[in-house]
């Protein structure tokens, strides 16, 4: 398998995995009566976001752009795929907002927002994968 595509797969596997995991991780860290738990949990959540999710997103997007430039693909599915990837980037940013909010006020109930974000993220990931694998137009 060409190395650039392999890099694209590694990046998107880690990115999609952490994007689905982060809302559950944030929700699991709220509404406990233990300040030490809050501190450790906030540290873990921030680490997953900063050290895995964000670099993986940059690798997935960077290698995808390099594939696109190298092969000169200009198909309809790729344009629509870029829109669904933009949706994933938006979900990534919203995850960051949730991480910060829970860090500032851990007693906040954010589980509904986390569930909704997880659902929207899963929809964008499924749509992206379908577009790139089915190449419908
Ligand atoms: C700006 C972001 C991205 C760009 C520009 C991009 C671009 C590309 C390009 C040009 C290819 C090669 C297609 C081919 O050879 O037929 C590709 C392959 C692929 N991309 Fe992306 N991609 C991006 C993000 C993503 C994301 C976020 C996902 C998953 C959620 C994804 C999933 C895939 C898959 C599964 C393939 C393999 C398709 C195949 O070999 O049939 N890509 N991408």
Automatic annotation (TrEMBL):
GO cellular component: plasma membrane
Membrane-spanning residues: 6-27, 48-69, 75-100, 112-133
Cofactor: heme b
Pathway annotation from the record: Porphyrin-containing compound metabolism; protoporphyrin-IX biosynthesis; protoporphyrin-IX from protoporphyrinogen-IX: step 1/1
Pfam family, any one: UPF0093
Co-factor binding details: Binds 1 heme b (iron(II)-protoporphyrin IX) group per subunit.
Keyword field: Cell membrane, Heme, Iron, Membrane, Metal-binding, Oxidoreductase, Transmembrane, Transmembrane helix
Record flagged with keyword Transmembrane helix: yes
Flavoprotein is among the record's keywords: no
Membrane topology: Multi-pass membrane protein
Family designation: Belongs to the HemJ family.
Protein known as: Protoporphyrinogen IX oxidase
Species in which this protein is naturally found: Stutzerimonas zhaodongensis
């Amino acid at each position: 398998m060409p190395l650039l595509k392999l890099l694209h797969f590694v990046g998107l596997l880690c990115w999609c995995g952490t994007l689905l995991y982060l809302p559950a991780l944030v929700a699991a860290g709220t509404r406990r009566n233990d300040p030490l738990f809050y501190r450790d949990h906030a540290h873990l959540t921030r680490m997953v976001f900063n050290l895995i999710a964000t670099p993986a997103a940059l690798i997935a997007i960077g290698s995808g752009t390099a594939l696109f430039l190298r092969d000169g693909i200009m198909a309809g599915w790729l344009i629509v795929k870029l829109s669904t990837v933009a949706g994933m980037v938006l979900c990534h940013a919203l995850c960051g907002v949730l991480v910060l909010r829970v860090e500032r006020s851990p007693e906040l109930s954010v589980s509904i927002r986390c569930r909704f974000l997880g659902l929207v993220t899963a929809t964008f990931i499924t749509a992206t994968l379908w577009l790139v694998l089915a190449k419908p137009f």
